[in-house]
Protein backbone atom coordinates (compact mmCIF):
# COMPACT_ATOMS: atom_id res chain seq x y z
CA UNK A 1 0.00 0.00 0.00
CA UNK A 2 1.46 3.34 -1.01
CA UNK A 3 1.76 6.37 1.26
CA UNK A 4 -0.81 8.38 -0.74
CA UNK A 5 -3.51 5.78 -0.24
CA UNK A 6 -2.94 5.62 3.55
CA UNK A 7 -3.16 9.44 3.97
CA UNK A 8 -6.19 9.85 1.76
CA UNK A 9 -8.82 10.78 4.37
CA UNK A 10 -6.57 12.46 6.92
CA UNK A 11 -7.22 15.99 5.65
CA UNK A 12 -10.98 15.56 6.04
CA UNK A 13 -10.58 14.19 9.56
CA UNK A 14 -8.26 17.02 10.58
CA UNK A 15 -10.66 19.59 9.12
CA UNK A 16 -13.56 18.02 11.04
CA UNK A 17 -11.56 18.29 14.27
CA UNK A 18 -10.53 21.92 13.73
CA UNK A 19 -13.82 23.28 12.30
CA UNK A 20 -15.72 23.59 15.64
CA UNK A 21 -12.85 25.56 17.17
CA UNK A 22 -12.69 27.89 14.18
CA UNK A 23 -16.44 28.46 14.26
CA UNK A 24 -16.36 29.17 17.99
CA UNK A 25 -13.57 31.69 17.41
CA UNK A 26 -15.47 33.48 14.62
CA UNK A 27 -18.72 33.58 16.60
CA UNK A 28 -16.87 34.85 19.67
CA UNK A 29 -15.26 37.65 17.67
CA UNK A 30 -18.67 38.65 16.27
CA UNK A 31 -20.40 38.57 19.68
CA UNK A 32 -17.74 40.53 21.53
CA UNK A 33 -17.38 42.96 18.61
CA UNK A 34 -21.10 43.69 18.86
CA UNK A 35 -20.81 44.17 22.64
CA UNK A 36 -17.87 46.54 22.16
CA UNK A 37 -19.84 48.55 19.58
CA UNK A 38 -22.77 48.87 21.99
CA UNK A 39 -20.43 49.87 24.83
CA UNK A 40 -18.86 52.67 22.79
CA UNK A 41 -22.33 53.82 21.70
CA UNK A 42 -23.48 53.98 25.33
CA UNK A 43 -20.35 55.85 26.41
CA UNK A 44 -20.73 58.39 23.61
CA UNK A 45 -24.42 58.91 24.35
CA UNK A 46 -23.72 59.41 28.07
CA UNK A 47 -20.94 61.89 27.27
CA UNK A 48 -23.22 63.94 25.01
CA UNK A 49 -26.04 63.76 27.55
CA UNK A 50 -23.89 65.02 30.41
CA UNK A 51 -22.69 67.88 28.22
CA UNK A 52 -26.30 68.97 27.72
CA UNK A 53 -27.00 68.63 31.45
CA UNK A 54 -23.94 70.63 32.41
CA UNK A 55 -24.71 73.45 29.99
CA UNK A 56 -28.52 73.59 29.92
CA UNK A 57 -29.54 72.14 33.31
CA UNK A 58 -32.43 70.10 31.89
CA UNK A 59 -32.99 66.44 32.69
CA UNK A 60 -35.57 66.13 29.90
CA UNK A 61 -33.18 67.54 27.29
CA UNK A 62 -30.44 65.29 28.63
CA UNK A 63 -32.54 62.15 28.17
CA UNK A 64 -33.62 63.25 24.68
CA UNK A 65 -29.98 63.83 23.73
CA UNK A 66 -28.94 60.40 25.03
CA UNK A 67 -31.72 58.77 22.98
CA UNK A 68 -30.73 60.79 19.90
CA UNK A 69 -27.12 59.60 20.12
CA UNK A 70 -28.15 55.96 20.56
CA UNK A 71 -31.26 55.60 18.35
CA UNK A 72 -30.81 51.86 17.71
CA UNK A 73 -31.02 51.03 21.42
CA UNK A 74 -34.56 52.26 22.25
CA UNK A 75 -33.57 53.50 25.71
CA UNK A 76 -36.18 54.09 28.42
CA UNK A 77 -36.09 56.78 31.11
CA UNK A 78 -35.32 54.13 33.73
CA UNK A 79 -32.10 53.26 31.87
CA UNK A 80 -30.84 56.87 31.86
CA UNK A 81 -29.86 58.10 35.32
CA UNK A 82 -29.02 61.78 35.73
CA UNK A 83 -27.43 62.96 39.00
CA UNK A 84 -27.93 65.50 40.37
CA UNK A 85 -31.27 66.46 38.86
CA UNK A 86 -30.27 70.09 38.91
CA UNK A 87 -26.93 71.51 37.90
CA UNK A 88 -26.77 74.68 39.96
CA UNK A 89 -23.58 75.82 41.62
CA UNK A 90 -23.94 77.15 45.15
CA UNK A 91 -21.56 78.52 47.74
CA UNK A 92 -21.44 75.10 49.38
CA UNK A 93 -20.80 73.35 46.04
CA UNK A 94 -19.07 75.87 43.76
CA UNK A 95 -17.80 73.18 41.41
CA UNK A 96 -20.78 70.87 41.18
CA UNK A 97 -20.56 68.03 38.68
CA UNK A 98 -23.25 66.30 36.68
CA UNK A 99 -23.19 62.59 35.94
CA UNK A 100 -25.18 60.64 33.38
CA UNK A 101 -25.20 56.85 33.60
CA UNK A 102 -26.80 54.78 30.85
CA UNK A 103 -27.39 51.05 31.35
CA UNK A 104 -28.41 48.62 28.64
CA UNK A 105 -28.84 44.84 28.88
CA UNK A 106 -27.66 42.93 25.84
CA UNK A 107 -28.50 39.38 24.95
CA UNK A 108 -25.91 37.40 23.09
CA UNK A 109 -27.22 36.21 19.74
CA UNK A 110 -25.90 32.66 20.04
CA UNK A 111 -26.22 32.11 23.78
CA UNK A 112 -22.82 30.44 23.85
CA UNK A 113 -21.29 33.04 26.16
CA UNK A 114 -23.96 33.31 28.85
CA UNK A 115 -27.51 34.54 28.93
CA UNK A 116 -27.03 38.29 28.94
CA UNK A 117 -24.79 41.13 30.03
CA UNK A 118 -25.54 44.65 31.28
CA UNK A 119 -23.40 47.36 29.72
CA UNK A 120 -22.95 50.79 31.31
CA UNK A 121 -21.89 54.08 29.80
CA UNK A 122 -21.01 56.95 32.13
CA UNK A 123 -20.19 60.60 31.59
CA UNK A 124 -19.21 63.22 34.16
CA UNK A 125 -18.75 66.94 33.62
CA UNK A 126 -18.43 70.04 35.75
CA UNK A 127 -21.60 72.15 35.74
CA UNK A 128 -21.51 75.19 33.47
CA UNK A 129 -18.16 74.30 32.26
UniProtKB/TrEMBL annotation:
<feature type="domain" description="TadE-like">
    <location>
        <begin position="9"/>
        <end position="51"/>
    </location>
</feature>
<dbReference type="InterPro" id="IPR012495">
    <property type="entry name" value="TadE-like_dom"/>
</dbReference>
<protein>
    <submittedName>
        <fullName>Pilus assembly protein</fullName>
    </submittedName>
</protein>
<dbReference type="Pfam" id="PF07811">
    <property type="entry name" value="TadE"/>
</dbReference>
Amino acid sequence: MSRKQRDRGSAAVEFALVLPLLLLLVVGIAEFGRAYHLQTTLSGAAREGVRVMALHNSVTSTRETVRAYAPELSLKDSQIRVTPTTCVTTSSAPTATATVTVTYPIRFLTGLFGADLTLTGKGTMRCHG
